[in-house]
């Protein structure tokens, strides 16, 4: 179906891209503004892929005349004050253009708007007395002075499901809805008989200031699907609802939640061309041989840098053929066998998906360059100089024109080619690809596999990219903070500030984050910060709430960023430390992304006064080198202490705790001269905590 997808929630003045889905490059598509606020003068372009900018707050309905019929898309526009809280241009145009004024916020530095930034929202659904009940829980921004009662909720039923209900002769769901406000949220109800095969409800939380909707959350959604034989049940595995004996049963899914398996996942990145010694064409086979050894480390998700045909640069991101495995790595059968072996060893596989550009050596570009008459000319973006658009100083690539239907059709076919073979996509330069395409890709892969992972490389991260696009986000903020701590430029407790910043800038509680200290683009942490800080930083990624990642070689003390892995010089004590961290992370759900993070007061080998500001003895670890925090989930609670400095720290924590370090299995608590218990920690100690 060519329908452009879910409703959009934007600010006035924010330009959004509109595109038909599953496009036919030869098809005819025409857009129109079907309905708008009375004072609006906004128009829509005439191209199949176009842009729309609402000029006043209110509800808009945009029409798309497509080969399969007419479609309507709801756009809710809020006060332009929203632009000061979130990135202008939901598809990341402000980041793509490096336009700080348009973006309105410096995410890396954490500069927030007045009164704390956007609220957050979470949706859930259940069946009560022959009604679907959708509950929205709205939460003020952590830095806001607003209370939950100061927030309103705006629901929107997906236009696609309204059309499906009408086509099936059912009541328009919007006509059957009742909404009520609750303390800290709202409830939407509608009779089960008005539900088509699928009903998707979207909502945002809105904070009203000075009479305007000035703070708006990232949208959340819930899907209610019939599973009584009338629906296709594409989201099998959702929570069962309804009474099958009454002839109606449903399943509810929360499409913006990360796959359940990410709750205890850990990622291992492989830079494919230097991971294993191999002759030409045997690299994938050599990687496959090492998989059992990697599995013993305890990691369960394998991210391979690009494996497709490219221009010969070793990183592989300059692609010349999106359908073929690079000859120097092996062939398609080698790749499929590697994936199968990874699965046999309990590991999922992430495919590095590159959709922003091609190499200049790509056949399209070679024909189009300096050839205005080339049939491939419109498949790229061009500068007035005649050179292709690129980012930074990358001279060997050319940016694709995502407004070209042939390009979109081709990229969707690429997704269809590789998604069935793997368990997720690591999406390269996600900020440089329009959100309309990512939203379509998400719906496409999740319809086939609800547990398929989409992870974005967007630096700095953008809360809106969790709105129907990605599950897990690169946490470059935590990465940079860990570097600053390791350099001695920030106190260790800045890592807690970095994690808390996620909610402060608007990410919902259910968003996932990839936690890393190095990757193929970064200097090895130990080279820059030393072994002691590297051990603590790695422990931070396994004990703070998120998905920990290890870059191949990190676990053996590798110093070269993209050098051949020196397996024969592996530091076994480092490997054993990573294996212990991984085992502890898997064994203790409180350490995972769903565990709560709380600050605790602590003292470092001092005189016992103050909170986290004790003056250390001259030969002791400085307090700024140490941080302690509490993790909790369900019936389990743990206290974590990290020490970034050389030498052992003795840390008193103002929380009841046990004496056994769950990472090493050894006692780690001793009493000082005053009888106060202190946790002894080299790089990390994790002890059970009282409740």
Overview of the molecule:
The protein is α+β, with helices and mostly antiparallel strands and 691 residues long. It contains 14 helices and 36 strands. The strands form nine sheets. It has an eight-stranded parallel barrel with strand order 17-18-21-24-25-26-27-28. Strands 9, 12, 13, 14, 15 and 16 form a six-stranded antiparallel beta sheet that branches. A four-stranded mixed beta sheet has the order 1-6-5-3, covered by helices on one side. The longest helix has 16 residues, at 572-587. The model is unreliable at 82-113, 230-237 and 607-619 (pLDDT under 50).
Helix count, per DSSP?
A: 14
Biggest beta-sheet profile: 8 strands, parallel, barrel
| Average of per-residue pLDDT values | 90
Low-confidence stretches: 82-113, 230-237, 607-619
Q: Percent of residues in beta strands? A: 25-35%
Instruction: State the strand order across the main sheet.
Output: 17-18-21-24-25-26-27-28
Helix content: 10-25%
Shape: globular
Supply the helix-strand structural class.
alpha+beta
Q: For the terminal residues, how far apart are their CA atoms?
A: 52 Å
Number of strands: 36
Radius of gyration: 26 Å
Q: What multimeric state do the chains show?
A: single chain
